[in-house]
Amino acid sequence: MSAAQPADDFIVEHHPAATRSLRVAFVTETWPPEVNGVALTVARFVEGLQQRGHEVQLVRPRQKTEETTRREALRGEEAAPLHEVLMRGLPIPRYPNLRMGVPSKKALVALWSRRRPDLVHVATEGPLGWSALQAAAHLKLPVTSDFRTNFHAYSRYYGVGWLRKPVMAWLRKFHNRCAATLVPTEALRQELQAAGFRHLAVVSRGVDAQRFDPGQRSAALRLSWGAAADDLVVVCVGRLAAEKNLGLLLQAWAGIRRAQPRAKLVLVGDGPLRAEIAQRAPEAILAGQRRGEDLAAHYASADLFLFPSLTETFGNVTAEALASGLPIVAFQYAAAAQLIESGRDGVLVPCGDAAGFERAALELAADGPRRARLAAEARACALRHDWDSVVLRFEAQLMAAADAPAATPGWAPRWPRVAT
Fold it and tell me: Which residues are CB-contacts of 33 (< 8 A; sequence separation ≥ 6)?
């Protein structure tokens, strides 16, 4: 135990390993009410750590709607186990409602020198996450990280495919400085390991099967979409952005609409492609961002979930759709590949087989009895993936990193040089 740690930590060391409490600095650049899979998953893990008795210091950018007075809520031992530290943030280009942190190494070194955590967990690889990695190295603190977003895969959707290699090099350099990098699927672990990433461990994602439930189906909501009881409603949930492969969704939808003119397409989410989608499919219902029970009702009030994305690290919406009792057509990739048994609780298509995706969507749209069979199994599948078991696996990884030998003195992560 380091002499820099407060003496009261010695009391914790006498507890059995199963009940030992950690002081975790949890660094993220996205947090609810921002609507994205990373923010919602991070919130679940933070909540789970609190429920398990760990003290969490949440370090994140100040959101646009929050007060401008900086708060560093370190209130002493009598405080609640979640202490928020709000840092400077900037809007993300093309996503003005989202914020990213700014380089803050000096502030984090000062913060963690005053109240030393047992472990730093970095959830996102942005400027704030990089600063946290540097600050932890300076203070010889163990670090774990999440690989949550396929930035390297996004590059081809924005006309900068040449950035794929340097972005991957930076991500590898970032994560290889950590005691462990947590990934949501075994397939992603193998992919990253082949690319030179080290210290990888699989910690999946859970689903709130109480919130996302077929019982949330709403006849009134369907009526607002213009859908009668027997009309097919196709839904897709996620950002309206190029990396979600929505062009394929619209192609499949066009075929469904020709066969079933009364069918409805509902897109839940927002993003830079909203105007283009409205122009290409003016009949589509663009529901915008939805949260909580409202989001659950949008899932459950549909009849078929189409998910054409090939850039997910996991894809929480897949698990949410399953829990809502929706038959799914998706590529054999990320959460879909991990959760769905094709033909039993959904339909999986080989990655990149656009024609196969369209064909599967048309066939399932036309077969009501088959959709009903898949829907029943989809719900059963989701019930096997609760958050409690996922948080336990996450906690075990943090415990192992906190107990490992100290990081090698002197190393400090740096941005990789990119030839111009």
Answer: 63, 65, 291
